[in-house]
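Hi R.,

As promised on Friday, here is the backbone we talked about, encoded as structure tokens. Could you run it through your design pipeline when you get a chance and send me back a sequence?
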């Protein structure tokens, strides 16, 4: 997963804060493979590490390994993406956004943009099966339910720009009258915008809402390629995750959820938004 730009930024925050706190890191990459990540967690438990910050490939399949960590007295902090609710009892804290709220905010923005007329909308999702992908889609669909917006297709691009470009080309070929696209992150959104351009669509023809608050996302808002992106403070999430883990290791009380505030960037505020908060 460290190949994903957003995860790299999250890891950067962990590295910075760990150095500041004098924490020795063992960094492992699950590579979008839930089985591999489960094996990595079990290995860390066998090594008797002091604690684990986990950005899950799949919030459900890792539950047995996280349970094993808890039973071994090893605190686990979920960072940027959460464990499935059924495994929440095995972690000490989650640092990140409510992905359902993220999707709902995107749905609200799409409703505002398309108006009463609505239209056909596609969803370009992250990695299938992850809590982030599931909840972002659920939040969007619940937000637009009962409106004239019709979600005609949902396809996974694994948070990958090239896959998102290819998928979008397929979507626009099948649905040339598409009105909007909800994209689960800005990295994929770059690929979506490239596909739109190559097929003759502009930001006026097709309304796109994204998430992550990257500099690329902000630039696409400024250029009119997309309507909006909302900010995920990934560096801060990484820094807070390791800080919370150290507190838990030291027996200090920590909150069960350090929840991000969702800031939506659009044409009205993107120029005035603090660029230091973008990644």
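Update: got your reply. Pasting your designed sequence below so it's all in one thread:
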């Amino acid at each position: 997963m460290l190949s994903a730009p957003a995860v790299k930024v999250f890891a950067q925050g962990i590295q910075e804060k760990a150095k500041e706190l004098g924490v020795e890191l063992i960094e492992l990459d699950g590579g979008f493979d839930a089985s591999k990540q489960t094996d990595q967690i079990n290995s860390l438990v066998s090594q008797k590490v002091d604690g684990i910050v986990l950005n899950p490939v799949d919030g459900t399949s890792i539950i047995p390994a996280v349970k094993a960590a808890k039973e071994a007295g090893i605190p686990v902090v979920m960072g940027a993406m959460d464990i499935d609710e059924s495994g929440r009892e095995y972690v000490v804290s989650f640092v990140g956004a409510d992905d359902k709220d993220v999707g709902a905010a995107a749905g609200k923005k799409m409703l505002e943009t398309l108006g009463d007329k609505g239209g056909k909308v596609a969803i370009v999702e992250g990695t299938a099966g992850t809590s982030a992908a599931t909840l972002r889609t659920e939040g969007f669909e619940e937000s637009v339910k009962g409106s004239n917006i019709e979600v005609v297709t949902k396809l996974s691009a694994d948070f990958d720009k090239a896959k998102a470009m290819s998928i979008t080309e397929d979507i626009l070929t099948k649905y040339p009258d598409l009105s909007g696209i909800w994209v689960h992150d800005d990295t994929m959104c770059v690929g979506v915008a490239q596909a739109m351009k190559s097929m003759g669509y502009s930001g006026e023809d097709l309304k796109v809402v994204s998430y992550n608050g990257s500099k690329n996302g902000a630039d696409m808002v400024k250029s009119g390629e997309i309507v909006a992106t909302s900010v995920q403070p990934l560096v801060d999430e990484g820094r807070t995750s390791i800080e919370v883990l150290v507190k838990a290791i030291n027996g200090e009380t920590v909150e069960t959820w350090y929840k991000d505030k969702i800031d939506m960037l659009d044409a009205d505020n993107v120029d005035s938004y603090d660029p230091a908060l973008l990644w």
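One thing I noticed while checking it: The chain has a mean pLDDT of 94.

Thanks again,
M.
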